Structure formats: structure tokens, C-alpha cells
Amino acid sequence: MGEIRNAERTRKAILQAAKEEFFERGYSGARIESIAKRAGVNKQLIYHYYNGKDDLINQTIDEFVSSVPIGNFTLPANPVDIADFRWKVNMDHLREFLKFTAWEAVEELPQNSNGEEARRRVLQSYNADMKSKQEMGLVPNELDPAFITLMMSSLTIYPLLYPNVTKMITGYTVDDQEFQEKWSRFLRQISERIFQKEDVK
Questions:
Q1: What angle do CA 79, 156, 102 make, to 5 degrees?
Q2: pLDDT confidence of 8, banded at 50, 70, 90?
Q3: Are 115 and 65 a contacting pair, CB within 8 Å?
């Protein structure tokens, strides 16, 4: 029993070290040797638990996604509230992970090496939620649910990924409380103009 507990502790230590390495350096920049050093284990032990870098990144992201409280992926009933909700979740809980995803724009990644399946499940659930709200008459029929999800992802992620551009455009840093409050209000104002106004119980 002690050996099982030790193995589980080692596995978790490796995943935590891998998360730090991947999130800081991206997929291509991450090194198994650096992950081993962060975890305090030898390189061979990583290969005992994981089948190389691709397996490690997928399991790292699966573990990360499953560790985020489910409430952070459960969208509000009123579509007007969704953009602001996603902005706050991204800012408070997913910021480092989102920086990792930015590496995808500049790196050539092996297929299915970035936790794609776990991420697709979350994003497709947003599409399904928006389609359901559309069927309830809360979202205009002429709007494509997938494009709404893409729009909300853009609005709620861009300031976090490009803080320098955000400051050049607005004069605020993304960590400025006044910016965060103003951006939340703006997201709500935009949402009120997009979605049909219905009372949501």
C-alpha cells in the first residue's frame, strides 16, 4: 500500500513539474530533463510513468482541466452574463494555462500533443450550451452558436494574452482594477445588444 501511495505522489509531482515547465516554456521549449529536476526525480523515472513528451503534455492538461472546479465551466443561465463570467474565470483561474496556449501560434506541435481532446470537450460544451439557449429563445436564431463561442473566447482571452497591446490601446494594465471593472461592464453592454432580452428564472 505504501508503494502505491509513493507511486501516486511521484506521478503527481511529475505532473506538477510538467505543468510549470510547459506553461512557462511551451511544448517545444519544455525539456524532460528540466521537468525531472523540478520534480526531484531522475529522467528515467519519468519514462517509467509516461510514454514520452506527447503523453506527458496530454496527461498534464487532462489533470489541469479536471482540477479546475466544475463551476468554472458551467455557464450562467442568462447569455448576457456569459462573457463577463468567462472573463473572470479566465483571469482568476486559467491565466497561466492560456499563456501556454499562445505558444501554439508560434510553434509547430505534433498532432494531439497539446491536450486537444480535453480542451475540445470544454469548448464543445460551450457550443452545446449556446445552442440550447438558442432553442429556448434566449439567443437570436440567425447567430451561429459556434461563432458566438469563438467571439466570447476572443473577447475574454485577448487582454490576458496581449497585456502590452491592451495597455497601448486603453492606457490600462490588465491587472488594473479599474480596467477589469470597465471591461466587465463593456462585455455586459455588448452582450445586452447581441442577445434577446428575456427574463431568466
A1: 140
A2: confident
A3: yes
Whether the model clears a pTM of 0.90, i.e. scores above it, the answer is: no
Q: pLDDT digits over 112-140, tens only?
A: 556 677 788 889 999 999 999 999 999 99
- 63 and 14 within one domain: yes
Query: Domain check: are 50 and 143 in the same one?
Result: no
Q: What is the DSSP string of 108-168?
A: -PPTT-S-HHHHHHHHHHHHHHHHHHHHTTSS-TTS-HHHHHHHHHHHHHHHHH-HHHHHH
DSSP 70: G
201, pLDDT greater than 50: no
What's the confidence (pLDDT) of residue 1? 52
Pair 175, 155 in one domain: yes
- Tell me the residue range of the domain where 103 lies: 70-194
Residue 200 lies in a domain: no
Here the CATH number for the domain that contains residue 53 is 1.10.10.60
